[in-house]
């Protein structure tokens, strides 16, 4: 019972996160057939309302987005960037080819904007792939997520949401967490503005990144080393499924509006400011 207004609150269902192992892949393969086989092997069935979290890297490999570094032709611009940031020149060239925007970098990495996400090296991944190769982001992540959702509905008869998951470095923090590269079947952001908080005050700015939060839960069981778990079923997430078209504009902001990027570029203080810590620090 809600003591504030006398109404009965509905009990929330516990969140269930189920990992599904699948074969390691190194070249183009049938993703949906692999998913169907993996679910059968794990003894799992998808239910209406589930969210299927799929490794974006696994999707990219299925689409043939694996490149040999030996085939990369390095331009003078990439050579200069590689020298400045102590990078492999071929990786620098890939980043310049893939990124929507390059801001700068540190030794070994460039900070980029790619498909609506701030990420190191435009999401190019060299882990869990043979030496000398790299995996790029899927060519069209949101189209890929929508295609997976349609295929699951056709092959398995389940109405599910789909997220392509990736790992992300949060500014100022050690360790990676989950981020949704693309979403299909539900709105990735839940707008809480105008709704009342616990004390009846209207929320002013809060918009919850539902897809990213689900990704973080999925990443807990998906792992990033040798777990071979590219699929995760997330049940009772509370998302409302629909056939709306989801695009990057539904979740990403222009990098010029990003507090991290803008504060350290055009919004940067010209001189260092000394901040006195409060007695509560």
Plain-language structure description:
By secondary structure, the chain is an alpha+beta fold. It folds into two domains: 16-64 and 140-263, 2-Layer Sandwich (60s Ribosomal Protein L30, Chain: A); 66-136, CofE-like fold (Alpha-Beta Complex), CATH 3.90.1660.10. The protein has helices at residues 31-42, 56-62, 76-84, 89-98, 141-156, 210-222, 259-264, and strands at 16-20, 51-55, 66-68, 101-106, 109-114, 117-120, 133-135, 161-169, 176-184, 190-191, 207-208, 231-235. Strands 1-12-2-8-9 form a five-stranded mixed sheet. Strand 8 and strand 9 form a beta hairpin. Helix 3 packs across helix 4 (89-98). It is globular. The chain starts with 15 loop residues before the first strand and ends in a 17-residue tail after the last helix.
């Amino acid at each position: 019972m809600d003591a504030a207004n006398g109404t009965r609150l509905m009990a929330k269902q516990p969140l269930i996160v189920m990992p599904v192992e699948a074969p390691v892949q190194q070249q183009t393969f049938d993703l949906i057939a692999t998913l169907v086989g993996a679910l059968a092997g794990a003894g799992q069935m998808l239910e209406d309302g589930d969210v299927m979290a799929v490794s974006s890297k696994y999707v990219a490999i299925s689409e043939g987005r694996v490149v040999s570094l030996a085939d990369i032709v390095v331009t003078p611009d990439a050579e200069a960037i590689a020298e400045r940031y102590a990078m492999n020149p071929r990786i620098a060239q890939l980043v310049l080819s893939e990124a929507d925007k390059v801001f700068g970098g540190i030794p070994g990495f460039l900070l980029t904007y790619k498909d609506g996400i701030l990420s190191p090296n435009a999401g190019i991944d060299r882990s869990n792939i043979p030496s000398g190769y790299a995996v790029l982001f899927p060519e069209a992540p949101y189209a890929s997520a929508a295609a997976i959702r349609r295929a699951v509905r056709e092959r398995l008869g389940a109405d599910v949401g789909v997220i392509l998951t990736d790992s992300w470095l949060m500014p100022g923090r050690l360790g990676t967490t989950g981020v949704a590269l693309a979403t299909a079947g539900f709105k990735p952001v839940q707008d809480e503005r105008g709704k009342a908080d616990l004390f009846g005050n209207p929320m002013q700015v809060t918009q919850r990144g539902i897809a990213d939060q689900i990704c973080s839960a999925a990443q807990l069981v998906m792992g990033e080393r040798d777990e071979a778990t590219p699929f995760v079923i997330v049940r009772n997430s509370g998302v409302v499924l629909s056939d709306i078209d989801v695009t990057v504009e539904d979740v990403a902001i222009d990098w010029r509006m990003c507090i991290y990027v803008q504060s350290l570029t055009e919004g940067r203080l010209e001189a260092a400011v000394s901040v006195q810590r409060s007695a509560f620090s």
